[in-house]
Design goal:
By secondary structure, the protein is α+β, with helices and mostly antiparallel strands. The protein has helices at residues 6-11, 59-75, 90-93, and strands spanning 19-22, 26-30, 38-44, 83-86, 102-106. The chain has a 5-stranded antiparallel β-sheet, covered by helices on one side. The structure holds adenosine monophosphate.
Length: 116
């Protein structure tokens, strides 16, 4: 359940990505198929496949994902207009990459909460 995905290769810089932030516990980079003018993924360095595998020990890092998302939005000038933070889980959540990540979407009105 802790198999590596393409995101581990990005963390190790084995494949290219537009990394906008990193620290000891998280890495943030631009989504390769942006769904909004600003679409950034904030991921833990630790492999947690889905929200279902997150534990109490992960709570500090999971909160950090949100504060870093807000920091990135502020630094890029779209915090005041607003943005959406989203974590997809498993098939019904539309998850494609099984390394938990927080989507930061902004730069225009993001639209309805649930699509399609
Ligand atoms: P999710 O559906 O929540 O698992 O989202 C996975 C996201 O990862 C999608 O929005 C993809 O466009 C994005 N993605 C997949 N591969 C890459 C990559 N190599 N670099 C940046 N983003 C990626």
């Amino acid at each position: 359940m802790t198999e590596e995905t393409i995101f581990s290769k990005i963390i190790r810089r084995e494949i290219p990505a537009d990394i906008v932030y990193e620290d000891e516990s998280v890495v943030a980079f631009k989504d390769i198929h942006p769904k909004a003018p600003q679409h950034i993924l904030i991921i833990p360095r630790k492999i947690i496949p889905t929200a279902n595998e997150a534990t109490e020990n992960d709570e500090k890092m999971l909160g950090h994902l949100i504060t870093i998302a807000a920091q990135i939005a502020k630094q890029n000038g779209f915090a005041d207009d607003g943005y959406r933070l989203m974590i997809n889980c498993n098939k019904h959540g539309g998850q494609e990459v099984y390394h938990l990540h927080l989507h930061l979407l902004g730069g225009k009105p993001i639209g309805p909460m649930v699509c399609g």
